[in-house]
Each structure stands twice: as structure tokens, then as C-alpha cells.
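Z., the sequence and structure:
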Amino acid sequence: MSIRQYIPVKAAVLPDPAVYCPTNGYVYDPVVITPPIPIPTPPAESITLLCSNFLSNTIYCIGTSALTYTVYDSTGAVFFTQNKTSNSYFTYNYSVSASNPYYTIIVTPQAANHILTFSIAAHASYQYNQPIYAAWIKAPYMTSWVSMFTQIITLQACTILSTADSVVSMAGMFNATGILSFKFPSSMNALTTANLVFTNSMIKSVDWNNCSFPLLTIGTEMFNGCKFFRSLDMTISAPKLIYMDKFCYLNTSLKTANMNFDVTNITANIAMDNCFNTCPLLESVILPNFSNSTYTITLSYFVNYCTALKNLTYRGTLRTGSSVYMPIYKCPNIDTIRVKGDIVWISGSFALVDTGQYSQCPHIIFEKNVNNVIAMTGCKDLQFLQDITNILNFQCLDGEFSSFNHPTMTFNRLVMGHRSGFKITDLNINWAGCVFPAGTSSIPIIYFGGSYTAADCNAIYSALPVASVPTYIDFRTCAGYSTSTKTIATAKNYLFL
């Protein structure tokens, strides 16, 4: 009646600090129980719990259906059975002996019932010390996994053995547990909320299993405080995701993050602020693809205080109707930002780097079209891999690149602010095709700053097309502005600030 399953089990304590590795975090190496524990074969609809007497021998749980609890001793023999009505607590105090240190509880629905919800940490008196090491969930009718194992510090493994297409929320499911790894089912078609799932847990790896989350909207703080989680390869389907802020907040081991999914069915503003905050080992981030939206997509402080960050890739198309910021804040080692998709703005602007906040990206690469870019602080190498006919608003502040050779490009606004000692020596754009609006005295349409001499300024004045309306320009921070021939530009309907 039973099958033997080998489950790694170890007391849920932090590893010995003597084996702490600054690069990889704590080395957590569970031992295997000998002899192996016989786990009864789970019925068609059931929840199986592997328990021990570590910390406590009391189990306290509750379900919203009429459930039967069957306890098996460590030999696989039935030791105790109890039926509980809906919303009734099951409390069990197992008489542990040296020969029977482990036991199994199998929860099954009574006749004409299904397991709809189930929670272990349901009572403050037993919340932290319930001795559950592993769980197997075979309950396809469950509607909620909310706080199912919250603060069960001994829990190391949880296996999903059925579909989970009725689960609406899994918020806090493994919050502050000893869970080491987890594999999602192939689909969770009703899931809308997945916040705090692994917060402050021991999670090291997640197999996303190409899971489909067609209704998921909230993924906030999923890996907040997960100090042993090292690699995120989030290959999923989540077309409606709109909240994902503080996703990996205070994560001390994360090194790579690939958010390999498309957000295509956007029905509200999107907030992904502080997604990767204080992850000191994080080196590479690939963002999801947002497309076909007129809603605001906020990515403020998206990568924040990640001092090892080198590369960030924006892999998809983004279309929005308001200002959007994707600053890299206090990441002093950022080297390359790559934008793979079209950047299409109806209005507003797009900040690649948070200006003046300690992050200056040397290499910025645009692979496709872009019509509105702002604040590329400290850029030394600016590449456009595809000719772009018109950029509505282009601003590079404190740039350090010397070449801008794009003879087909036109602009509605052009801001080239270079650091002292820097200037563009190879400036080649389609000036004749540019159509500039008037601007204002506080927002000039054309701005140049840096080590441009009077001759350099005059060359730009000469290249300017005739403005159809009086157009504000600003060259005051150019080294040679005061002695330049401003009448070259004023004769073409330009107004100097």
C-alpha cells in the first residue's frame, strides 16, 4: 500500500557560519534520512504531510471542507484517523518514540466534498514550531494556497502532483519557511495574486515549468529577503501582470535575472518599482516585454543599489502614453544597456539612467526604432543598429561619446549635453529633414554643452535648417559660445537663451 520516497531532511537551522562563502552565500547541504521513510501512496485527491518530532510533536491545521485526517507511523501503518467538519481545526499530538521518529498525515475530502483551502499555520500558539518537513499536494479543486505553510521553518520540500487551475491566490504560501526548491504546475489559469510567495524563505531554485498565468496581476515581493536565491530564469506566460514591485528586494545572492515573458494584455497602469533592490551580487538583468499599451509603465529605481550590475537588456517593444523611467540607481559598475525592441512613445519621456545618481552607463545600444529617449548619463558609446528616420525627443546628458554619425536621422528636439572636455567631433545627421517646434525659454528645442569651440558652434548654427516658427536654442555651456557668431542662427529664426 505504500511506496518509498527519499526526502532530504535536516533541522531548519542556518548553516554553520564557518562554511559561509561571500560569493555563494551559505552552503546549505541537507542530509538524507536513513533508513528511508515509507510514504503511503496519496489518494486521487489529498494533501500528504511528512512530519517529525523536531521542535514539537503537535500539528494544527484547518480546511474549509469536511476532511479526513489519517496518521501513519514511520513504518507506514495507520496509527490514527479523525473526521473534521468544515472550518474545524485538526489538532494532533503524536506520541514519538525512538523507533518511530517520523509520521505521515494524509488529508482527504469526505464524501461529496473537495479540498478547497487548507492551512497549516493557522494558530499563533503553533505557528512557528509545527514539525512538517515535506508536503505533496494532489488537490485540483483548491481555490487558495494563501499562507498555506507560512512560517513553518522546518518545511523543505513541496511537490504539486495535480493541476492547479482553480487557485486564485498563493500569497505568502512559503513565507519564512525552509523551502529549498519549488516547481510550478504547467498552468494556473485562475491565479491573480502571487505576492510574498517565498519572502524570507530558504528558497534556492524555482522551476517555472513554462507555467501559464493568464490572469496573474500581482507578483509583488515574491522573492523579498531570499538570501540564498541565486538565479532567476522566469520563463512563463503572464500577459496581464501589472504589479511586480520589490520583486527581489534585499536579495544577497542573486547573480542573474531573466524575466522571459511577454506582458501583452495590459488593462491598467503597470508598476515594477524597486524590482531588484540591494542585490549586491546581481550582474545581469533582462526585462520582460511590454507591448501594445497606452497605460503608464513605471519602472522607477528598477535596479537599485546593485553594485555588481554590469548589463541590463530591455528585450521588447514598449508603447506608452505617459512619462516612463527605468533608472539604474547607484549601480556604479553598469557597463551596457541594450534595447532590443521598438521604443514608441505617444508623449512623455524615457530615462535609461537616473541622472546624477551615481550610475553612468558607458555603452548604450538601440537595436530597433526609438522615438523618445532621455537621460543617458555618462554614455561613452552610443549605438543605433537600425537607421531611424525620426526621434521626437532625444536627450543625452553628461555624455562622453565623440561620434554621432547617423545621416538619415531627424529630430524634433535634440539635447547633446557633454561633460567638460567632451564634444562630438563627428556629428552627421539629417539637419534638413528636421522640423523643430518653438519650445519655450525654459525648455529649449536644441541644446549643446561641452568643450565646443566657437568654430564648432558656428558649424552647428550653419547646419541648422530654417525654423518655421521662432525656436529656442541653448549653447550657453559650450566653451566657445560667447565668441561664436550667433547671427548665423538668428537669421534662421532661432532664439538664443
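Residues 454-463 form the longest helix (10 residues). The first strand starts at residue 2 and ends at 4.

Let me know what you think.
H.
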